[in-house]
Sequence to fold (337 residues):
Amino acid sequence: MSYLVIKDVEKSYGDLKVLKKTSLNIEKGKLITLLGPSGSGKSTLLRSIAGLESIDNGSIIVDGVDITNKEPKNRDVGMVFQQYVLFPNMTVYDNIAFGLKLKNMDKNTVDKKVKEALALVELSNKATSYPHQLSGGQQQRVALARSIILEPKILLFDEPLSALDRKIRKNLQVEIKRIQRELDITSVFVTHDQEEAMIMSDEIYLMNNGGIEQKGSPQELYNHPKTSFVAKFIGTYNVFSKEDFEKHFKSNINVKEVAIRPEVIQITKDNISNEEYNLKDCTVTDVSVIGNTIRYEVIKDGFIINIDVINDDIQDIKLGEKVNIFVPKEKCIFLEK
Ligand code: ADP
Ligand code: MG
Fold:
């Protein structure tokens, strides 16, 4: 049996069904993310695991023990929120020690554990600082230390990095992963940012409207989206309706939509011969350099296509020029729904 099992959880607020028989199975020591747009039910599910929200139906099992009806404080679950919620009038040291002192642990043991936690989050030199003297990223490290020092069975993160600058966010993504692996602590991480989910997770559960739309490794979700919602959410896919695809590529297909990754489309100023899915005489309407790739937006009769190529310094396609494009058929992902 998985370490954390969430089975058919249902939750409504009045008439609004927020969780619709949602189920997850998470192995010990894994970090999974709940990814999804705002309002899809991520925080509600997380708060249900923590016991901050009661559920209408279903069960939550940790390490074989049914915790569905337990008080939050008896669940052995730690949580890190977007807001740092540290005690402003306590030092970093005292913030981290707080939970252990509540448990009446002796002073020497507390001291040893706080120092270990400080080292783990790389804040040993900030023990006597107050929260207002720390950056956002440092405050979030304190919040993390404060949770892990209690050795919870499950660690929950609700968009903990969303308020931080990109660079600090990237840094902390790697740090959280390192600490999570080092402690082998089963974790559920909520984010609405698909790139963050890709970087962080062993497995992603993509939520849509209170249900799990698709779950899988970052690789699986990126390479094999099963629905148009997934293809659109996971990234930069071109998603074409059946009608658009048939009209422009002059080809009949028997599905609802077609997803095509921008990097599989070929773009050239040369003539192209008889590739099956091609489009001639497109106009380049945008050229963006995104680090190691260049993204072209091209348009033909109002039909817009994004194409990525490696930025190898020999690309000579410019804004406003005419280009031909083609897509290898085996690279098209045909979506039934
Ligand atoms: P997410 O974290 O994915 O953005 P939430 O779980 O916070 O989504 O919310 C899911 C839905 O439930 C939203 O439509 C939200 O407005 C609604 N909701 C969340 N909390 C409450 C509440 N306490 N009372 C009423 N509706 C709520
Ligand atoms: Mg939320």
Summary: The longest helix spans residues 166-183. The radius of gyration is 24 Å. Residues 262-335 form a domain with the OB fold (Dihydrolipoamide Acetyltransferase, E2P) fold (CATH 2.40.50.100). The pocket of magnesium ion (ligand 2) is lined by residues 42-43 (CB under 6 Å).
